[in-house]
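Open question from group meeting: does this chain pack into something compact, or does most of it stay loose? Before anyone orders reagents, we agreed to write out a predicted structure and look at it together. Recording both the input and the output here so the notebook holds the full record.
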Amino acid sequence: MPHQKLIARLQATGGLSDEERRSLADIPRTIRSLADGEYFSREGDVASHCAILVSGFLCRHKIVETRDQILSFHVPGDMPDLNTLHLPEMDHDLISIGRSTVALVPHRFLSQMLDESPRLTHAFWRETLIDAAIYRQWVANLGGHDAIAKIAHLICELLARLEVVSLAQDNRIQLPFTQKHVADACGLSIVHVNRTLQELRRRSLIVWEGGELAVLNRKELERIAEFVPDYLHLKQ
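Structure tokens returned:
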């Protein structure tokens, strides 16, 4: 079911009734597959659909002067352009990391569904508020942490978000990111990222090989990152 991860995501952050789950499962959609590095949308595009990320990863991206800046990562179950329902012109790019699949849902259908369901309206509104909370945390990390804490925090966040949609097992996640992706998200050079990942390996905190990242000592990694997942607003 293309919307299974979205339903799991909304269930984890606020809960859904059986009727709401059925409504989400019946959303009409067009499936689109994206290659690694393919743009789903570009800054300046005017959207008529919202995307549900079914598999893989997307990132929000902007070019700042001559530097690539990743503004956020998106995992299956996310709707990374939900804001276009009311602000249709894109002010950033959305790019696939590795191969990914998205389900396109027409704005007109989403608007009608939300008009008919105040509870789903609240659920989607809550998603935009959580998205903003994640943004605030990213800003705080960029400005207030050293390199090892920044990267540790990114790993902890991705692990927590992927657990919600059943894509993490035994603290292991499939992650097709390159060191450049990490550098562009954390405001670091690739050389600095490489050295920091080596340090995390040296401390026996992570193993990252062949697209799989394993967290070996999660408690210590969270301590280094000062990771407190409250900003993700996941139900316990």
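Observations to bring back to the group:
The chain has a mean pLDDT of 93.
The radius of gyration is 18 Å.
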